[in-house]
Design goal:
heterotrimer; A alpha/beta (about 250); B mainly alpha (about 325); C mainly alpha (about 290); A: alpha/beta; Rossmann fold; 2 domains; six-stranded mixed β-sheet; four-stranded antiparallel β-sheet; 10 helices; C: mainly alpha; ABC transporter involved in vitamin B12 uptake, BtuC; two-stranded antiparallel ribbon; about 70% helix; globular
Chain lengths: ~250, ~325, ~290
């Protein structure tokens, strides 16, 4: 369970997060929504160690995440994707995923230099796992192709595969549906459900309301650096403050 | 087919002292071997982790001076001196590696150049230690048990073994989880961190191994030429190394070796015909031409040309380490 | 005390030309994101151009300085068009290597053309130093300092007061927005590189008569230019001016009080210390030219 308490982030006078608190329960698909500039990606960055918050506590399964480097947070099972498509551009899809499997390997310098059966076995095991993950996201036919040469939607799948390879217990997805076609979004939501089925908690930032309302167990709404609502999708859709936040105070309520 | 080619190459290299026409040719191969080690070491930083370190001559020089001074002034025999050279250069590499964490791109380049510049000036000015511009003559040759390796032939095998070892180390590192981490650093550092790659650890590791190998090359050089002077810190050595790596193909293993051979043999072959200044001018123009027309280097271009045409998709220039991937 | 003042004066003279080098490079590096390792070669080019104008063509001294500036500008324009423009989208590493290639090619071309023997540039100033109390300063150095100041002033004016300068500053701050506002980025790049190279050439022509002219004189000039850029902050012309003066004085004091052999180390050490401790430079305000 991810627990965020009174998280505050300031950028030179501009308050991005003004004391945000929420929890993400294990085994759920939870979405973080809000108008542009509400602070969603900032929250992600603060939780996963890419940003140092001014105040507040973030704990995962009781252990504090604050002040830790991103790779340490990944070791604890919290893995995130990025808003802007992030792959290892000149490497193949297979190699992208192999890097994602970094934490699943154990070979250190001495072991590598010595070589031997153990290393060979580990490499084979990782290669098999990579193939499985690439197939899971539906990119088996692209496995040898260079990541940056793939169409946009497939690059986002590569991103997802890399994140899954790190065997997260909680996956933070930053706008995974952005720029996708309708069909791609359908495939994505099916994938996210399957990921939850593998016992991974999914926490996503997303703008597409159909996607959000369609798959989320819980929706958290951020506006102006504050949580203004938290609950089931149906309740959120009817929440007056949420409607106001999206339409502006002059907009008529639905 | 490849196995046959490699086997033939190995045979040629192993019997070189026999079929080469003169000791001068053997000398050229020895220098090529030393530069191959240097190019391979620079390639770890430049090609695999993507850090443009232009102070590599500093590691070479530190290795050369350490080995020479320990042998001359403290009476150490070659092998411990070699070890110390690798260790000291490696330590300098550790420092540079930690610097790279705070600086990137152009700033890192500047710091590496400055570092090399300072070390160079120290070697010129600290007369008591290094004898300044006069250099250190009379560095003893290495010994293997009771035999001193005085002949070119014997030294050739030493350098060949060292180069093969260096290649082996790089090969093992690159074709492993560690090599993939290096590539991840080059390709997309924040993404690498997000999946648990400890950037600090791998950057420093690359720098230490790279510097230590360069130090080994320095020691071999010192005991071969039997003379060390501040000239080992000349920027032209770094430039030559960079050209070897970039021309051969950075990010490949064969590239630096091919580059080293090419840019050791070529100048020697042209030495009679053409003056050194023309060669350096040609180097500059060649570097420019390569960057424009063969940016990946010679080895990848040749590999691409030899591959049958594919109909679908983009053939990956993949990282090694996955099952079934050709290197 | 007198010695200290003398060192300060000498340092300022030297620093003025370092400032010229630094301003040129901070514009190129800051605006175009090009790590111009060939910057020192334009310095050398300027020195040799002045030499050729004076010793070979017999031009008057001031015309020779002007000729050097023109040659630097032209050379810069050509390099930008032929080498940099085609590589516009490439990574900073590629352009850096291209500049290294240019560095090697230019220096060895100079070596082949002029030979390795150092030349001296004749100048019309009397050699007897003017004395001002305990200080002595050669008239040549006064001229050099005055010219450097004039060129620095002209640079400031260009950047701050002209439309071209405004376009350059806009490109530095936000290239995409500047392009959307109608700034022709390609033209700005060409002008920036030519202008920066012209300043480097001027520095070479000015320092040439004081020191000697030889093909590898540009190596240290490049590094000192980078040192000035680092001191002053990327794209910061005022910072580069002050940084140049600081470096000049630091070098003179170092050579005088520590050891003349380590004179050139001052620039290296400054680079390392500043990058480690205050990477944005001593005078940097975030992301601004001028």
């Amino acid at each position: 369970m991810l627990s965020v308490e009174d998280l505050g982030v300031e950028f030179g006078g501009v308050v991005a997060l003004a004391g945000v608190s929420f929890t993400v329960r294990p085994g759920t698909i939870t979405s973080l929504i809000g108008p542009n500039g509400a602070g969603k990606t900032t929250a992600f960055n603060a939780i996963t160690g890419y940003l140092r918050p001014g105040r507040g506590r973030v704990t995962y399964d009781g252990a504090p995440l604050g002040g830790r480097r991103p790779f340490e947070i990944a070791r604890r099972g919290v893995v995130r994707t990025f808003q802007k498509t992030s792959v290892f551009p000149t490497l193949s899809v297979r190699d992208n995923v192999l890097i994602g499997l970094h934490l699943r390997g154990t070979a250190g310098v001495l072991a590598v230099l010595r070589g031997g059966r153990r290393i060979g076995d580990e490499e084979r095991r990782l290669a098999d796992e990579a193939a499985r993950i690439v197939a899971f996201v539906g990119l088996a036919h692209r496995v040898d192709e260079i990541a940056s040469g793939l169409p946009y939607g497939e690059q986002r799948l590569v991103e997802l595969a890399v994140a899954l390879a790190a065997r997260p217990r909680m996956l933070l997805l930053d706008e995974p549906a952005a720029g996708m076609t309708g069909a791609e979004k359908e495939r994505l939501t099916a994938l996210i459900r399957r990921i939850r089925g593998e016992d991974v908690t999914v926490f996503l930032v997303e703008h597409d309301m159909r996607v959000v309302m369609g798959i989320s167990d819980t929706v958290i709404v951020l506006n102006g650096g504050r949580v203004i609502a938290e609950g089931a999708p149906a309740a959120i859709q009817a929440h007056p403050e949420v409607i106001r936040a999206y339409l502006g105070s002059s907009g008529a309520p639905a | 087919m490849r196995r046959l080619g490699l086997g033939a190459l190995a045979l040629l290299l192993l019997t070189a002292p026999v079929w080469l026409a003169s000791p001068y040719h053997l000398h050229v191969l020895i220098m090529a071997g030393i530069f191959a080690i240097l190019a391979l070491s620079l390639n770890l930083l430049l090609g695999y982790t993507g850090q443009l370190s232009l102070g590599h001559a500093a590691f070479f020089g530190i290795g050369a001076y350490t080995s020479a001074l320990l042998a001359l002034k403290a009476g150490w025999s070659f092998w411990p001196a070699l070890g110390a050279a690798a260790a000291l250069s490696g330590a300098a590499g550790w420092g540079i590696g930690r610097l790279a964490l705070k600086l990137r791109g152009a700033y890192f380049v500047l710091v590496t150049i400055s570092f090399a510049g300072v070390i160079s000036l120290v070697s010129v000015n600290w007369m008591e230690l290094t004898n300044g511009p006069l250099g250190l003559p009379g560095v003893p040759p290495p010994d293997l048990g009771p035999w001193a390796l005085r002949t070119k032939g014997a030294y050739y095998y030493l350098v060949l073994a060292a180069a093969a070892l260096a290649y082996g180390v790089c090969h093992r590192l690159v074709h492993s989880r560690i090599g993939r981490a290096f590539l991840a650093l080059r390709e997309n550092e924040p993404l690498a961190e997000s999946v648990g790659v400890d950037v600090t650890h791998y950057l420093v590791l690359a720098a230490v191994v790279s510097a230590a190998l360069a130090g080994v090359a320095g020691s071999l050089y010192a005991h071969y030429t039997r003379f060390v002077s501040p000239e080992v810190f000349l920027f032209s050595y770094t430039v030559t190394m960079v050209i070897m790596v970039v021309a051969g193909g950075k990010g490949t293993l064969a590239g630096p070796v091919v580059g080293a051979l090419l840019f050791t043999v070529l100048p020697e072959a042209l030495r009679e015909a053409v003056s050194w200044q023309w060669q350096m001018l040609a180097y500059g123009v060649l570097l420019l031409a390569l960057l424009f027309f063969l940016p990946r280097g010679i080895v990848p271009a040749v590999a691409r040309a030899m591959r049958p045409a594919r109909t679908v998709g983009v053939r990956s220039r993949s990282a090694p380490g996955a099952r079934g991937e050709p290197e | 005390m007198d010695q200290l003042l003398q060192h300060l004066v000498n340092g300022l003279v030297l620093g003025g030309t370092y400032a010229l080098l630094g301003i040129g490079l901070t514009l190129i590096f800051g605006l175009m994101n090009v790590v111009n390792f060939a910057h020192g070669e334009f310095y050398t080019l300027g020195a040799y151009a002045a030499f050729a104008a004076l010793a070979l063509a017999g031009l008057p001294f001031f015309a020779a300085i002007g000729a050097a500036i023109v040659v630097g500008m032209a050379g810069g324009a050509v390099v930008e068009r032929v080498l940099l423009r085609p590589l516009a989208g490439e990574s900073i590493d590629t352009t850096m290597l291209v500049m290294i290639g240019l560095w090697i090619a230019m220096q060895n071309a100079e070596l082949l053309g002029w030979g390795g023997v150092a030349q001296s540039i004749p100048h019309p100033f009397p050699t007897a130093p003017w004395t001002l109390g305990p200080l002595g300063i050669a008239p040549l150095r006064v001229f050099v300092f005055a010219t450097a100041l004039a060129l620095i002033g002209a640079s400031h004016l260009l950047i701050q007061k002209t439309r071209l300068g405004t376009a350059m500053r806009a490109t530095f701050q936000d290239r995409d927005t500047a392009a959307l506002m109608g700034v022709r980025i390609g033209r700005i790049h060409a002008v920036t590189f030519a202008f920066g190279s012209a300043l480097a050439a001027a520095a070479g022509a000015l320092l040439g008569p004081i020191f000697l002219v030889y093909p590898s004189m540009g190596d240290l000039a490049s590094l000192k230019a980078f040192c000035v850029v680092i001191l002053g902050g990327l794209g910061n012309i005022v910072g580069a001016t002050l940084g140049g003066l600081i470096l000049g004085v630091a070098e003179e004091l170092g050579a005088g009080y520590v050891s003349s052999g380590y004179r050139d180390a001052v620039g290296f050490v400054i680079i390392i210390l500043v990058l480690l401790l205050r990477p944005s430079g001593l005078f940097a305000r975030a992301e601004r030219i001028g």
